[in-house]
Model the fold of this input.
Amino acid sequence: MGQVIQMADYFTPDAEQFVGTAAAHTIGLMIGNINGMVRLILDIPEKYNALGIISSRTGTVAQAIAIDDAVKACNAKLLRFEMAIDAGRQCGQGCLFILGAETISDARKVVEESLHNIDYWSQCIYINEVGHMESHVTPRAGEVLHEIFGTPVGRTFGVVGAAPAGVGIAAVDRAVKAAPVDIVWYGSPSHNLRMMNEFVAGVTGDIAAVQKAMDVGKETGCQLLTALGITPISIQDVAEECGEDYLKRNMSPAVCQEEKAASIHINKKCDEER
Done:
Protein backbone atom coordinates (compact mmCIF):
# COMPACT_ATOMS: atom_id res chain seq x y z
CA MET A 1 0.00 0.00 0.00
CA GLY A 2 1.10 3.57 -0.70
CA GLN A 3 1.81 6.09 2.00
CA VAL A 4 -1.30 7.72 3.43
CA ILE A 5 -0.96 11.51 3.44
CA GLN A 6 -3.07 13.51 5.85
CA MET A 7 -4.72 16.39 3.98
CA ALA A 8 -3.87 18.80 6.80
CA ASP A 9 -0.18 18.18 6.03
CA TYR A 10 -0.53 20.04 2.72
CA PHE A 11 -1.39 23.30 4.42
CA THR A 12 1.29 23.58 7.08
CA PRO A 13 4.09 26.08 6.32
CA ASP A 14 6.75 23.37 6.39
CA ALA A 15 4.87 20.89 4.21
CA GLU A 16 6.78 19.62 1.21
CA GLN A 17 3.88 20.08 -1.18
CA PHE A 18 2.44 23.47 -0.23
CA VAL A 19 4.62 26.55 -0.78
CA GLY A 20 2.21 29.47 -0.64
CA THR A 21 -0.44 31.56 -2.32
CA ALA A 22 -0.53 34.83 -4.26
CA ALA A 23 -2.97 37.21 -5.88
CA ALA A 24 -5.30 36.13 -8.70
CA HIS A 25 -6.32 33.05 -6.70
CA THR A 26 -2.89 31.51 -7.20
CA ILE A 27 -1.44 28.53 -5.36
CA GLY A 28 2.20 27.46 -5.44
CA LEU A 29 3.21 23.83 -4.88
CA MET A 30 6.37 21.76 -4.95
CA ILE A 31 6.72 18.02 -5.53
CA GLY A 32 9.91 16.09 -4.83
CA ASN A 33 10.61 12.48 -5.83
CA ILE A 34 8.08 12.51 -8.64
CA ASN A 35 5.99 9.36 -8.97
CA GLY A 36 6.90 7.38 -12.08
CA MET A 37 3.35 7.34 -13.47
CA VAL A 38 2.94 11.08 -12.90
CA ARG A 39 6.32 11.68 -14.56
CA LEU A 40 5.17 9.70 -17.59
CA ILE A 41 1.79 11.43 -17.85
CA LEU A 42 3.34 14.90 -17.62
CA ASP A 43 6.31 13.94 -19.81
CA ILE A 44 8.90 15.11 -17.25
CA PRO A 45 12.54 14.51 -18.35
CA GLU A 46 14.55 12.25 -16.06
CA LYS A 47 17.05 15.00 -15.18
CA TYR A 48 14.41 16.85 -13.15
CA ASN A 49 13.90 15.37 -9.70
CA ALA A 50 11.44 17.99 -8.43
CA LEU A 51 8.57 20.05 -9.79
CA GLY A 52 7.43 23.56 -9.00
CA ILE A 53 3.76 24.21 -9.79
CA ILE A 54 1.96 27.53 -10.19
CA SER A 55 -1.80 27.32 -10.71
CA SER A 56 -4.18 30.29 -10.92
CA ARG A 57 -7.88 30.87 -11.49
CA THR A 58 -7.57 34.38 -12.92
CA GLY A 59 -5.17 35.59 -15.59
CA THR A 60 -2.15 34.15 -17.40
CA VAL A 61 0.05 36.99 -18.60
CA ALA A 62 0.85 38.37 -15.14
CA GLN A 63 1.82 34.87 -14.04
CA ALA A 64 3.91 34.26 -17.17
CA ILE A 65 5.92 37.46 -16.68
CA ALA A 66 6.32 36.72 -12.97
CA ILE A 67 7.59 33.21 -13.68
CA ASP A 68 9.84 34.47 -16.48
CA ASP A 69 11.51 36.80 -13.98
CA ALA A 70 11.78 34.00 -11.40
CA VAL A 71 13.37 31.54 -13.82
CA LYS A 72 16.01 34.15 -14.75
CA ALA A 73 17.12 34.10 -11.11
CA CYS A 74 16.66 30.40 -10.32
CA ASN A 75 17.91 27.04 -11.56
CA ALA A 76 14.63 25.87 -13.11
CA LYS A 77 12.98 25.42 -16.49
CA LEU A 78 9.42 25.72 -17.77
CA LEU A 79 8.29 22.22 -18.75
CA ARG A 80 4.56 22.62 -19.25
CA PHE A 81 2.13 25.50 -19.73
CA GLU A 82 -1.63 25.21 -20.10
CA MET A 83 -4.62 27.54 -20.03
CA ALA A 84 -8.15 26.63 -19.03
CA ILE A 85 -11.51 28.36 -19.32
CA ASP A 86 -11.97 29.72 -15.81
CA ALA A 87 -11.57 33.20 -14.25
CA GLY A 88 -14.98 32.97 -12.57
CA ARG A 89 -17.25 35.85 -13.49
CA GLN A 90 -14.53 37.79 -15.27
CA CYS A 91 -14.39 35.68 -18.50
CA GLY A 92 -10.96 34.68 -19.73
CA GLN A 93 -8.71 31.95 -18.40
CA GLY A 94 -6.92 30.30 -15.57
CA CYS A 95 -3.47 28.81 -15.98
CA LEU A 96 -1.07 26.02 -15.03
CA PHE A 97 2.73 26.25 -15.09
CA ILE A 98 4.94 23.25 -14.30
CA LEU A 99 8.61 23.99 -13.68
CA GLY A 100 11.37 21.42 -13.52
CA ALA A 101 14.31 21.56 -11.11
CA GLU A 102 17.12 19.16 -10.26
CA THR A 103 16.74 19.67 -6.51
CA ILE A 104 13.86 20.24 -4.10
CA SER A 105 15.43 23.46 -2.87
CA ASP A 106 15.57 24.84 -6.43
CA ALA A 107 11.93 23.89 -7.01
CA ARG A 108 10.83 25.60 -3.82
CA LYS A 109 12.92 28.69 -4.58
CA VAL A 110 11.44 29.22 -8.05
CA VAL A 111 7.89 28.83 -6.72
CA GLU A 112 8.52 31.25 -3.85
CA GLU A 113 10.00 33.80 -6.23
CA SER A 114 7.15 33.35 -8.70
CA LEU A 115 4.50 33.90 -6.02
CA HIS A 116 6.25 37.05 -4.86
CA ASN A 117 6.38 38.36 -8.43
CA ILE A 118 2.73 37.48 -9.13
CA ASP A 119 1.65 39.69 -6.25
CA TYR A 120 3.42 42.54 -8.05
CA TRP A 121 2.34 41.90 -11.65
CA SER A 122 -1.29 41.05 -10.89
CA GLN A 123 -2.01 44.62 -9.81
CA CYS A 124 -2.38 45.34 -13.54
CA ILE A 125 -5.37 42.97 -13.88
CA TYR A 126 -8.59 44.99 -13.63
CA ILE A 127 -11.99 43.37 -13.18
CA ASN A 128 -15.64 44.21 -12.88
CA GLU A 129 -18.71 42.00 -12.66
CA VAL A 130 -18.71 41.12 -16.39
CA GLY A 131 -15.11 40.99 -17.56
CA HIS A 132 -11.50 41.98 -17.13
CA MET A 133 -8.74 44.08 -18.66
CA GLU A 134 -5.00 43.62 -18.33
CA SER A 135 -1.93 45.45 -19.59
CA HIS A 136 1.68 44.55 -18.78
CA VAL A 137 5.15 45.65 -19.88
CA THR A 138 8.42 43.89 -19.10
CA PRO A 139 11.69 45.49 -20.28
CA ARG A 140 13.50 42.23 -21.03
CA ALA A 141 11.70 39.07 -22.07
CA GLY A 142 13.30 35.78 -21.08
CA GLU A 143 13.02 32.15 -22.13
CA VAL A 144 9.59 31.56 -20.55
CA LEU A 145 7.96 34.44 -22.45
CA HIS A 146 9.75 33.37 -25.62
CA GLU A 147 8.44 29.82 -25.29
CA ILE A 148 4.84 30.84 -24.57
CA PHE A 149 4.42 33.95 -26.73
CA GLY A 150 7.28 33.77 -29.22
CA THR A 151 8.65 37.16 -28.20
CA PRO A 152 12.36 37.73 -28.93
CA VAL A 153 14.55 37.10 -25.89
CA GLY A 154 15.96 40.29 -24.42
CA ARG A 155 13.41 42.62 -26.07
CA THR A 156 10.79 44.77 -24.39
CA PHE A 157 7.50 42.90 -24.39
CA GLY A 158 4.01 44.17 -23.70
CA VAL A 159 0.67 42.39 -23.53
CA VAL A 160 -2.76 44.00 -23.68
CA GLY A 161 -6.12 42.24 -23.77
CA ALA A 162 -9.60 42.09 -22.38
CA ALA A 163 -12.69 39.98 -21.99
CA PRO A 164 -15.30 39.88 -23.47
CA ALA A 165 -13.29 39.40 -26.69
CA GLY A 166 -14.83 42.36 -28.54
CA VAL A 167 -13.51 44.71 -25.87
CA GLY A 168 -10.07 43.16 -26.28
CA ILE A 169 -10.07 43.73 -30.05
CA ALA A 170 -10.90 47.41 -29.58
CA ALA A 171 -8.23 47.78 -26.88
CA VAL A 172 -5.55 46.13 -29.01
CA ASP A 173 -6.49 48.18 -32.08
CA ARG A 174 -6.21 51.46 -30.18
CA ALA A 175 -2.97 50.33 -28.55
CA VAL A 176 -1.10 49.52 -31.76
CA LYS A 177 -2.36 52.73 -33.41
CA ALA A 178 -0.94 54.77 -30.54
CA ALA A 179 2.73 53.79 -30.92
CA PRO A 180 5.13 52.04 -33.33
CA VAL A 181 5.01 48.46 -32.01
CA ASP A 182 4.88 45.05 -33.68
CA ILE A 183 2.40 42.30 -32.79
CA VAL A 184 4.30 39.03 -32.25
CA TRP A 185 1.48 36.95 -30.74
CA TYR A 186 -2.26 37.10 -30.39
CA GLY A 187 -5.01 35.07 -28.83
CA SER A 188 -8.72 34.96 -29.66
CA PRO A 189 -11.53 32.54 -28.81
CA SER A 190 -10.54 30.26 -31.70
CA HIS A 191 -6.78 30.93 -31.75
CA ASN A 192 -4.37 30.17 -28.88
CA LEU A 193 -7.02 30.69 -26.16
CA ARG A 194 -9.02 27.45 -26.29
CA MET A 195 -12.41 29.07 -26.97
CA MET A 196 -12.10 31.63 -24.18
CA ASN A 197 -14.12 34.82 -24.50
CA GLU A 198 -11.06 37.04 -24.69
CA PHE A 199 -8.81 38.82 -27.19
CA VAL A 200 -5.19 39.63 -26.32
CA ALA A 201 -2.02 40.60 -28.20
CA GLY A 202 1.68 40.61 -27.35
CA VAL A 203 3.85 43.36 -28.85
CA THR A 204 7.51 44.35 -29.02
CA GLY A 205 9.28 47.61 -29.76
CA ASP A 206 11.09 50.43 -28.04
CA ILE A 207 10.25 50.47 -24.33
CA ALA A 208 8.66 53.92 -24.49
CA ALA A 209 6.51 52.90 -27.46
CA VAL A 210 5.42 49.65 -25.83
CA GLN A 211 4.52 51.46 -22.60
CA LYS A 212 2.47 54.07 -24.48
CA ALA A 213 0.63 51.38 -26.44
CA MET A 214 -0.20 49.48 -23.27
CA ASP A 215 -1.44 52.60 -21.48
CA VAL A 216 -3.78 53.48 -24.36
CA GLY A 217 -5.03 49.89 -24.60
CA LYS A 218 -5.72 49.76 -20.88
CA GLU A 219 -7.63 53.05 -20.94
CA THR A 220 -9.73 51.88 -23.89
CA GLY A 221 -10.54 48.50 -22.38
CA CYS A 222 -11.48 49.90 -18.99
CA GLN A 223 -13.72 52.55 -20.55
CA LEU A 224 -15.59 49.95 -22.59
CA LEU A 225 -16.00 47.60 -19.63
CA THR A 226 -17.48 50.49 -17.67
CA ALA A 227 -20.34 50.53 -20.20
CA LEU A 228 -21.22 47.03 -18.99
CA GLY A 229 -20.69 47.45 -15.25
CA ILE A 230 -18.70 49.29 -12.63
CA THR A 231 -15.36 50.92 -13.40
CA PRO A 232 -12.89 48.00 -13.33
CA ILE A 233 -10.74 47.75 -10.20
CA SER A 234 -7.40 46.02 -9.71
CA ILE A 235 -7.75 42.51 -8.35
CA GLN A 236 -5.30 43.64 -5.68
CA ASP A 237 -8.04 45.98 -4.40
CA VAL A 238 -10.93 43.51 -4.47
CA ALA A 239 -10.23 42.11 -1.01
CA GLU A 240 -10.15 45.64 0.39
CA GLU A 241 -13.45 46.45 -1.33
CA CYS A 242 -15.19 43.17 -0.55
CA GLY A 243 -13.37 41.44 2.29
CA GLU A 244 -11.25 38.30 2.06
CA ASP A 245 -14.29 36.00 1.87
CA TYR A 246 -16.06 37.68 -1.03
CA LEU A 247 -15.81 34.57 -3.23
CA LYS A 248 -17.35 32.36 -0.54
CA ARG A 249 -20.22 34.84 -0.32
CA ASN A 250 -20.68 34.62 -4.12
CA MET A 251 -20.21 38.35 -4.54
CA SER A 252 -18.98 40.44 -7.46
CA PRO A 253 -17.10 43.76 -7.15
CA ALA A 254 -20.33 45.58 -8.03
CA VAL A 255 -22.28 43.93 -5.20
CA CYS A 256 -19.43 44.73 -2.81
CA GLN A 257 -19.54 48.39 -3.74
CA GLU A 258 -23.33 48.44 -3.42
CA GLU A 259 -23.06 46.92 0.07
CA LYS A 260 -20.40 49.43 1.05
CA ALA A 261 -22.51 52.34 -0.22
CA ALA A 262 -25.56 51.01 1.64
CA SER A 263 -23.53 50.65 4.83
CA ILE A 264 -22.24 54.22 4.54
CA HIS A 265 -25.81 55.46 4.00
CA ILE A 266 -27.09 53.58 7.05
CA ASN A 267 -24.26 54.84 9.23
CA LYS A 268 -24.84 58.39 8.05
CA LYS A 269 -28.56 58.11 8.79
CA CYS A 270 -27.82 56.74 12.27
CA ASP A 271 -25.48 59.65 12.94
CA GLU A 272 -28.16 62.13 11.87
CA GLU A 273 -30.73 60.54 14.18
CA ARG A 274 -28.49 60.73 17.24
About this structure: The longest strand covers residues 77-85. Residues 1-7, 10-15, 246-251, 262-270 have pLDDT under 50 and may be disordered. The longest helix spans residues 253-273. Residues 9-226 form a domain with the Alpha-Beta Plaits fold (CATH 3.30.70.1710).
